[in-house]
Amino acid sequence: MHSETWDTVARLARRFNAHDDERGLDAAQQWTLQVLKIAEETGEASQAVIGVRGTNPRKGDSHTWQDVHAEVADVIITGLVALARMRPDDAAPYLRRQLAAKAAKFLPPPSPAQVSPLA
């Protein structure tokens, strides 16, 4: 991910930390609420998919796939902010390690020609 992305995520994390600090919340409370925010955003993505599929007879076709894309992006952003709030000193390298570990379970090892010199 670009450093600009992580810079923005870190700024958001600091902003939300400051807000919660002002409210007197400790770190565990802040992290708990941030994880609940991920669940909320996931629910909104789910609601958008239901709207695309028209499976709620009361609402019908209420969303588009563009709405779903936006909601999925919200889930990802909220997750990145949560990670940055919980791991402010190493969120990016931690995510990189986690992604590599998860990918290794599903992808064959890269061939020498596929290995980036920056890795």
Explain this structure to me?
The protein is mainly alpha-helical and 119 residues long. It has one domain (3-91). The protein is built from four helices and no strands. The chain is flat.
Largest sheet: none
Average pLDDT over all residues: 94
Low-confidence stretches: none
Number of domains: 1
Order of helices and strands: HHHH
Strand content: under 5%
Distance between the termini: 12 Å
- Work out the radius of gyration: 18 Å
- Percentage of helical residues? over 70%
- DSSP, total strands: 0
What structural class is derived from the secondary structure elements?
mainly alpha
How many helices does DSSP assign?
Answer: 4
Tell me, briefly, the overall form. flat
Give a quick summary of the entry:
This protein is mostly helical and 119 residues long. Helices cover 71% and strands 0% of the residues. The chain is built from four helices and no strands.
